[in-house]
Amino acid sequence: MDKYIGRLLDNRYEILEVIGSGGMAVVYKARCHRLNRLVAIKVLKDDFLGDEEFRNRFHGESQAVAMLSHPNIVAVYDVSTSLSGDVDYIVMELIEGITLKQYMEKKGVLNWKETLHFAIQIAKALEHAHSRGVVHRDIKPHNVMVLKNGAVKVADFGIARMMSEGNTLTKEALGSVHYISPEQAKGGRVDSRSDIYSLGVVMYEMMAGRPPYEGESPVSVAIQHINGGAVAPSTLNPGIPRGMEQIILRAMAHEIENRYVSATQMLTDMDEFRKDPEILFHYSTPALEEAMKLRKPALVLEPMPRRPERTAKPQAAKPAPAKPQPIRQAETNLQTPTNKKSGKSSPVAIAAIIMCGLVVIALLGALIWTVVKNAGSGFQRMVDVPTLKGKYYDQLPDYEDVEIVIGEYVFHETYEEGKIVSQDVTAGSKVNVGTVITVNISKGQEIIPEKHTMPDLVGKRKSYAESTLKDLVEQLGLQVTYSEIASKEDQKGIVLASTPYPGVEINQGDNIIISVGSGKQVEEVMMPGLVGYTRDEAIYELSQLGFPQPKVTIVESSEEAGTVIGQSVNVGTSVRNDTVIELEVAGTPDLGPDGPVSVAMPLLMGKDLETAKSILSSKGFPEPIVNEVYHNREAGIVVSQNPSANGLVSTETVVVLEVSKGPKPAPTPAPTSEPTPEPTPESTTEQTPDENQNPVA
Fold it and tell me: pLDDT at residue 107 above 70?
C-alpha cells in the first residue's frame, strides 16, 4: 500500500487514493478538511528530495504558476512542504475527466472540427501563460484534461520546466519526446514558440492518428525532431483541409523563426479557418512550400504512372519533355510499323485491335453469366437477424452467420442488469452473412441518491443543531466539528456561523463546521481581505476570527459564480468581531449560488405601466403593487417607485409603483347666491397629496 494513503498533510489534506504517476511526482486524490472540498495533490517523488536546488526551483516556479488564472488551465491552490519536512507537494483543482491521449485512443483519428475545438482551447491557455512569462515546455495529450462538457484544461504548467533541466533522454522521457521541439531535443534555448511547436505536434496526431516521428527509442525520436522532414499529415489522412494542414505545419516549422510568433497569432489563423474551412493561407517558409507540394498526389487526380523500364542506365532512359515515352515509342515502332507518309495504320494493327475487342466482349459475357448463375445459389447468402433484445448477453448462443458486439452499457428502468436493451439491426430483417450487430447492455436501474442541503442553524441553540444534524450524520457519515468563537454574553451557546453555507448541497463524508458563541468578551480584530475567495472560504476565515455568519448578497458580475467581489469593511480596518460583515458574491440574474439574486434597481419613473412591468419581469422581480394617484402627468405613467432606482435590491422584493390617473378634477364652482362653505377636514385632506406631490418631468 502507498505510504501516503490515509495520511493527513499539515492537518488539512487527507490523502485518499492514487490517481496518476509521472517521472517526477505522484498525483493523489485528497480532501481538504478546512474548505470541505476534494482536491488533487502532486507529491514530489523521494528521488528528488535530496536535491535542494531542484526543490527550491520546484517551489519557486510552482508558486509562479499558481498566479495563473484561466478557465483552460488547471488551477493551483497551494504549494507547500509538510510540517515534518519530508513531503513537497502542490495542491490543485481535481478534474473529473480523461486525458486527451485517452480520448484520442478511444476515438482514433479526430475530424478537423474536434481538432480545432481542442486546439483553440489549448492555445488560449498558452496565450494566458505566455503573457505572464510562463512557458509550459511539456505540451502533450497526456497533460491535457478533457471534461465531460468538451472543455479542456492544461495541466502541469511550469512543472515540465524541471523535467527539461536534464538533457539525458531515457525511457521516462518516452511520453514527452514525441512532442518536444528541435531546440529542446538539442538542449538549446526554449521560449514560447517551443510550446507552439508541441501544440502543432498534438494537432498533427489528432488529425493523422499518430505523431509525426516514431522510433524504437527516445533518442531516435529526438534525432528525427532535430533533423526535421516529417511527412505532411495529409499523406496519412487525405481528408485534412489544406488550411488546417497549413496551420499545423507552420506551428511545427523546424526553424523557430518560421513558426507562429505567439499563441495569439496562431489563434487568429485558427479563428479564420473556423469561419472559412476552405481558406488557404499565404505562407512563404520553405518547409511549408515543400510540405504543400507533398499534398498534390492526394488532391489532384492524375493518370496512373507507367511502370519504369528496366535498363542498365536508368538516367539514359529518362523521357525527354519534348518526346514523351521515348522507350515505349521505340518498342511500338518495332512491333507495329506505320506508314509515316500517309499516317495510316497497317492491316496487321487493325486485325489485332478487332481480335482484342472480341476477347473483351467474350470475357464480359462470361462474367455476366457467372453472376446470374450464382445469384440464387449463395453468391450473397442472406440470413435472418435474431431477436436479441431482452436476452442476457452472457447467455446468447454462438451465432455462426452474424457477429454480436457490445456498443454501450446503459442504465435502464425495466431491463435487469446484463440484459440487452437494444440492437442496431431490426430483428427478423435479412442481412448478409458476417454482418456485425451492435447491442447495448443494461446496467440496471440508475440509483439517484437523495440530495441533502445544509440546514439553516444560525441563531439556533447548539443542542438544536446537534439534534437536527444527527440523522444527516448517520445517513451521510458527516464529520461535524463544533468550535467556539467570541460573542456577546447573551449569544453563548448560540450558533453564529456554519460551513457549508445554509442551503448548499452536502454529500457523503462532508466535513461540517458549526461556530458557536462562547459568551466571552468581544475582541477588536484586523479585517482580512476576502475578495477573490469563494463564499465558503470567506465564511470560514471570518469564523476563525470570531465573526458571526456574514450577510451574503448575490450580485450580477462577470466573475465566476460564488466568488466574493465585495466586503462591507475595508481590509486592514480594526473591527469588533461581533460585527455582521456584509459580503457581495458573484451570481447570475436568474440563479445565484444559494438563493435570491440582488440586481441594480432599474429607473421606472416616467415610463408607462406596461413597460415598467416588463422591465421588472425581465430582471426577475415578481408582479409589482400598483397604486393609482392623481398627478399632473398623463394617466398610466409611473410617477413614483419604491425601492428607488440604482440601489442593489433582491429579486424577491415586491416593488411598489405609483401610477398617475391624470390631474385631479377641478372642483365644481358653488352657486353665487349661496355662501362659500368653510373648508372641511375631509376637503383639506383630499388636497394634501396634490399640493405635496413632486411633479416628474
Answer: yes
Among the listed residues 88, 138, 510, 594, the single catalytic one is 138
Phi and psi at residue 678, to the nearest 5°: -70, 145
Q: How far apart are the first and last CA of the chain?
A: 79
pTM beyond 0.85, yes or no:
no
User: What percent of the chain is modeled with pLDDT above 70?
Assistant: 76
3-class secondary structure for 310-361?
CCCCCCCCCCECCECCHHHHHHHHHHCCCCCCCCCCCHHHHHHHHHHHHHHH
Residue 271 is among the residues annotated as catalytic for this protein = no
pLDDT at 126 over 90: yes
Contact 251, 197 (CB under 8 A): yes
The rounded distance, in Å, linking the Cα atoms of 243 and 239 is 12
Q: Each residue of 488-505: b (16+ CB within 10 Å) or e?
A: beebeebbbbbbbbeebe
Q: Which three three-digit cell numbers place residue 275?
A: 469561419
Q: Are 18 and 26 in contact (CB under 8 A)?
A: yes
Complete DSSP assignment for 393-413: GGG----SSSEEEEEEEE--S
Report whether 588 contacts 561 (CB < 8 A): yes
Decide: 203 and 270 in contact? Cβ < 8 Å: no
Give the helix ranges, DSSP H, for 179-313: 182-185, 192-208, 218-227, 233-236, 242-251, 263-275, 286-294, 296-299
